[in-house]
Amino acid sequence: MLGVRRREFIAALGGAAVWPLAARAQQPTIPVIGYLDNGSRETTRELVAAVHRGLSETGYVEGRNLAVEYRWAEGHFERLPALATDLVRRQVGVIVVVTTTAAFAAKAATDKIPIVFSMGADPINSGLVASLNRPSGNITGVYNLNTEVVAKRLGLLRELAPSAVRVAVLANPINVRGTSTMLAVLEPAARALGIQVQVYNASTRQEIDAAFATFARRKPDALFVAPDELFYTRRVQLVALAARYVLPTAYSRREYVEAGGLMSYGASLRDTYHQVGVYTGRILKGAKPVDLPVLQPTKFELVINAQIARVLDLTVPPTLLAIADEVIE
Question: Which of 174, 175, 273, 307 could serve as a FRET partner for 78 with CA atoms 20 to 30 Å apart?
Answer without folding.
Answer: 273
